[in-house]
Specification:
The complex is a heterodimer.
Chain A lengths: L12 H6 L10 H12 L5 H10 L2 H4 L4 H4 L9 E3 L6 E4 L4 E9 L1 H6 L1 H17 L4 E11 L5 H21 L3 E8 L8 E11 L14 E6 L9 H5 L19 H17 L4 E6 L4 H13 L3 E5 L12 H6 L5 E6 L4 H10 L4 E8 L3 E6 L2 E7 H5 L13 H4 L13 H9 L8 H4 L10 E3 L6 E5 L4 E8 L2 H6 L1 H18 L3 E10 L6 H20 L4 E7 L3 E2 L2 E2 L3 E11 L15 E5 L10 H7 L11 H16 L5 E4 L4 H11 L4 E5 L15 E5 L4 H8 L3 E8 L3 E6 L2 E6 H16 L1
Parallel strand pairs in A: 4-5, 9-12, 17-18, 24-27
Antiparallel strand pairs in A: 1-2, 2-3, 3-6, 4-6, 7-10, 7-11, 8-10, 9-11, 12-13, 14-15, 15-16, 16-21, 17-21, 19-20, 22-25, 22-26, 23-25, 24-26, 27-28
Helix pairs in contact in A: 7-8, 7-10, 8-10, 10-13, 19-20, 19-22, 23-25
Chain B lengths: L1 E6 L6 H12 L2 E6 L10 E4 L20 H10 L4 E4 L1 H8 L6 E3 L7 E9 L15 E8 L3 E3 L2 H9 L3 E5 L10 E5 L5 E4 L17 H14 L5
Parallel strand pairs in B: 1-2, 1-3, 3-4, 4-11
Antiparallel strand pairs in B: 5-8, 6-7, 6-9, 9-10, 10-11
The chains are: A alpha+beta, B alpha/beta.
Chain lengths: 744, 227
């Protein structure tokens, strides 16, 4: 694809057909045939092929994932808006809605890490404020290979710098996330960002353009030649022969986004009578936003005059203008006669805004450029009539004869094994990452990064939102269905540990190539597993994003459906963190410990691989345990609660001692190896002595007392075949020092 | 008494300051656009943190040319309190209301965390609510917080007791651990840490209330006699 090709040198419709030029834009022979024979009944011109290639890309059309996404549990009595709009909305009472969505920016970041990350943050924020919500918090979920070379370290630092630069500047706190390291992500790092917004429910906006004669207004940055056809690019897979595709990456400007955001929220809040619809210009830029807006309204067409589109450089072709993914742009539909009212709002905010077209009679999407019609296609054909593929599914080879025996950890010196575990990058503190994020701006952050879930209060109300992102791709690699269920369960555990009750989830489905049956199997199974858990936790999927083709030289990443969950805390006194609070408190493990070693951090640490059959998981038991902990928190029986996940019970105990540098004196019937098991459905909690009876009555046999919090800065845990014995500050030093040391 | 909170394009802590004054300090407060050219009717002016004009040229360098700045300079000349926090501090140095400048942190990274500070002087109208030498915790959140001035200026700052806050563990490389300074007249304070983020225990610390309380005490003790 020649992105600087102007109209005079564009291929003719016949050349496109004869030389199959559509293929280089990402369309298959079959898809080109559909456009030609079923949609247009003529040869599409260059611009039209471009429009279809963007709109029919996986990124915009979900053509490979649609049948799978239909399996998601999306209902719930508090769901105001489910998947389909920019972001979903859940009612949290008091006429307030929480809006959230996640987005992946894996491909752009792989090519240009800093800008890939910044524009990932910018894009998800636009999805939130286009609903009429003010963004109140962002999260990031990152997967990298273990850093080995200087290039690896540079890459990771640039991703973090990009997130930091954008979020800090625009003034939306990045309150948490999760970061894990595994060489499965060596050529396909995952950069997923989630944003959460708050809105008054009487101010919902939708991305629809209706009413003949109404105006289409372009808002924000000028259109340039950055990110041309990025949506189609994002849907390709990488290989070692195509390393450099930097021209397909966009460049972010958080200052402009801040102005655009304030302008849009001003229009939504104070000029809603003039506004018909509003939509972000994200993937596939102007064509995607306008075609979706036109299609959703139904019953009308749209005409745009591309000469009116603000342009950063001269001589841009219609193809480039429509497919550019220049950032910080929005599209509005405004009632005829009220354009000036809206244009003046943006002028006041220092933002470019201009009328570029109108809603028209009929159903056609028509583009004018230099006085000529350069595209004329049915609007629905772009936005909602992309082909849908029901892909073949087959069990991957590595699952067929998996060893059902659980890995047995080799431990001769438990304390040394614990020290080694605390220094694993996936386990180690991520402080050196999150301290470069402004976590506190907007002054609502009650629990900053470092605990199970971030907690952001809702100002002027006695309530707060808990937010977490989770998924362990290793579990899904061994069993995509159960691993998918576990991803949602762990997110819920983090939400519950913070004192909240799950409200719903968003997701980024990061998978391999759907055209390969064994990789499609992973996507299909994972979604079923996730959906099952969502239904059990009454946490519907309200939005999400799909990132397929994460494979390199035919090797896919671990299936990694990032789960972003939001929970509601009714009453700020229920907010709970993972840190032990005072000496004398009793320490309990809630939930039973079983052999959970295949897929675990200790298996990876000791053998260098992830193998065997994933350990068992009982979703009903998980729900039961989570309800117990919620009840204990709501009865104010707990001083701390911490989810037990990667690294097992001993890691969770150590992490609980770090915040206030308190020690523990504990004993258990478990073996030393059991302390590294990652079996699910468990929490480590601390209970003030005066609440002991009440707590024990509540939990019955579902919790075991391990001992006490002590104030001598010493961690001592007696197992049935050995003991862990370590100074807390020494453990803390290893845990905090590992990541900065490896990124130096 | 009435506070003004200035808002520049790209400011992002203006609502945090506004809320702190309104909800916690419980005084009158109004947002004032950078486009205004008057600060009549206000007893104190607060300049918020953020990234005015994206901080693209140099932190605070473009905001310094806003229409409101001459009015701010007038206001400062009248002796009434002016407090610039973070980007507000940067704007004050760019506008020539405070000496020195804020450079990139020595780590070259943005840092956000709660830092221990020493109240180096409690004689200012911004710190009278603290004890001299008191250790307080305030959040910092900046990439360009490394205060620098030449040796003559530093000597002057020390001699005139203009260094109000110092870092206990210098996080950004500031000369003499400086976290906040006042002008010679004593009515303009610039500080990198965010007192407005530390006015409620639920958010981790309320050590920042003293800064605003000091301003209120100063204004109320002398009565509103300006203008």
């Amino acid at each position: 694809m020649n992105s600087v090709m102007d109209q005079t040198t564009e291929a003719t419709p016949e050349q496109i057909r004869d030389k199959k030029l559509y293929q280089s834009m990402g369309l298959t022979d079959h898809e080109y045939g559909l456009i030609k024979d079923d949609v247009l009944h003529r040869l599409p011109n260059y611009t039209e092929v471009g429009l279809f290639s963007g709109m029919w890309s996986e990124h915009c059309s979900y053509k490979n994932s649609k049948p799978v996404l239909k399996k998601f549990f999306t209902k719930g009595k508090h769901v105001v808006k489910g998947p389909g709009e920019g972001a979903g909305i859940i009612d949290i009472g008091d006429n307030q809605g929480v809006v959230f969505k996640a987005e992946s920016h894996n491909h752009p970041s792989a090519v240009e890490p800093f800008q890939g990350a910044t524009t990932g943050v910018g894009g998800i924020l636009r999805d939130i404020f286009s609903m009429g919500a003010r963004p109140i918090a962002s999260m990031d979920s990152l997967r990298f290979a273990e850093p080995k070379t200087d290039a690896d370290k540079y890459f990771i630092q640039q991703i973090i710098a990009g997130i930091s630069a954008y979020g800090n500047c625009i003034g939306i706190p990045t309150v948490g996330g999760d970061t894990a390291f595994d060489d499965a992500y060596a050529h396909n790092p995952l950069i997923n960002v989630m944003s959460v917004g708050l809105m008054d429910l009487d101010k919902i906006e939708v991305g629809a353009a209706a009413g003949v004669g109404n105006s289409i207004i372009y808002v924000g940055h000028k259109t340039g030649r950055d990110g041309i056809n990025g949506a189609s690019f994002a849907s390709f897979q990488f290989d070692s022969e195509h390393e450099s595709q930097r021209s397909a990456v966009q460049v972010g400007d958080p200052f402009e986004e801040k102005l655009v955001m304030e302008g849009c929220l001003d229009v939504i809040n104070n000029h809603s009578d003039a506004l018909v619809g509003i939509q972000d210009m994200g993937a596939a830029g102007l064509v995607s936003s306008s075609a979706e807006m036109g299609s959703k309204a139904g019953g009308n067409g749209m005409a745009l005059n591309l000469d009116l589109v603000p342009q950063r450089e001269a001589g841009m072709s219609a193809f480039e203008l429509m497919l550019s993914e220049s950032q910080e742009r929005m599209l509005l539909c405004v009632k005829a006669g009220q354009e000036d009212e809206v244009l003046n709002v943006f002028k006041d905010h220092g933002v470019n805004a201009v009328v570029i077209g109108h809603v028209t009679e009929g159903h056609n999407y028509k583009l004018l450029h230099h006085g000529k019609v350069v595209a004329d296609v049915p609007v629905d054909s772009l936005a909602s009539q992309a082909p849908v593929y029901h892909r073949e599914s087959a069990v991957p080879e590595h699952l067929k004869n998996a060893d059902s025996k659980q890995y047995q950890p080799q431990i001769s010196n438990p304390t040394e094994t614990l020290k080694e575990m605390l220094g694993q990058l996936t386990i180690a503190s991520k402080e050196s990452i999150y301290e470069t994020y402004d976590t506190q701006v907007q002054t609502n952050t009650v629990v900053a990064p470092g605990s199970d879930a971030a907690v952001v209060r809702v100002r002027h109300h006695d309530k707060a939102l808990a937010i977490t992102t989770d998924v362990n791709g290793r579990y899904l690699y061994l069993n995509p269905r159960v691993g998918g269920t576990m991803a949602v369960a762990e997110a819920a555990r983090n939400i519950v540990a913070s004192g909240a009750v799950p409200l719903g989830i968003t997701d980024c489905l990061n998978f391999g190539n759907p055209e390969k049956p064994d990789q499609f199997y992973e996507l299909d199974q994972a979604v079923m597993g996730m959906s099952e858990a969502c239904e059990k936790f009454e946490a519907p999927v309200i939005s999400g994003n799909v990132s397929l083709n994460n494979e390199y030289d035919n090797v896919p990443i671990y299936p990694t459906p990032m789960v972003g969950m939001v929970g509601l805390i009714k009453g700020l006194e229920h907010i709970t963190t993972q840190d032990f609070k005072q000496a004398g408190d009793l320490v309990y493990v809630v939930g039973k410990t079983e052999a959970g070693f295949n897929g675990s951090q200790i298996q990876k640490m000791q053998t260098g691989e992830i193998a065997g059959k994933l350990f068992d998981f009982d979703l009903d038991y998980e729900v039961k345990i989570q309800k117990l902990v919620t009840e204990a928190i709501q009865h104010l029986l707990l001083n701390s609660a911490h989810d037990i996940s990667e690294g097992g019970l001993i890691t969770a105990i150590a992490e609980s001692t770090f915040g206030n540098q308190l020690g523990v004196d504990l004993a258990s019937e478990l073996s030393v190896a059991d302390f590294f098991s990652e079996s699910q459905s468990r929490f480590i909690v601390s209970v003030p002595q005066e609440k002991q009876a009440e707590f024990e009555q509540l939990v019955g046999n579902d919790a075991q007392k391990l001992g006490k919090v002590v104030d001598d800065n010493h961690l001592f845990v007696q197992a049935n075949d050995g003991y862990f014995d370590l100074d807390v500050d020494k453990a803390l030093g290893i845990w905090k020092g590992a990541l900065p040391c490896r990124l130096k | 008494m009435k506070f003004a909170v200035l808002a520049f394009p790209g400011s992002n802590c203006e609502m945090d300051l506004y809320n702190a004054i309104k909800d916690i300090i419980k005084e009158d407060v109004e947002l004032v656009s950078y486009k205004n050219d008057s600060l009549a009717g206000f007893d104190a002016v607060l300049i918020p943190g953020g990234f005015s004009y994206g901080d693209y040229l140099r932190s605070g360098a473009i905001a310094r040319f806003s229409p409101i700045i001459p009015a701010l300079q007038e206001f400062a000349k009248s002796g009434r309190p002016v407090l610039g926090i973070c980007n507000g501090f940067q704007i004050l140095t760019e506008a020539g209301l405070l000496p020195g400048s804020l450079q990139k942190n020595v780590s070259a990274k943005f840092i956000c965390k709660t830092e221990p500070l020493v109240v180096n002087s409690n004689k200012s109208m911004f710190s009278s609510a603290y004890q001299a030498g008191q250790l307080i915790s305030l959040p910092i959140a900046h990439g360009d917080g490394n205060y620098y001035c030449d040796q003559d200026t530093l000597r002057e700052l020390v001699t005139n007791d203009q260094i109000v806050f110092k870092y206990a563990n210098n996080p950004n490389g500031s000369i003499d651990n400086i976290a906040g300074i006042i002008n010679k007249a004593g009515n303009v304070l610039g500080m990198m840490p965010h007192p407005e983020r530390a006015v409620e225990a639920v958010l981790g610390s309320d050590d920042g209330k003293g800064v605003f309380q000091s301003i209120v005490n100063h204004i109320k003790s002398r009565g509103v006699i300006y203008e």
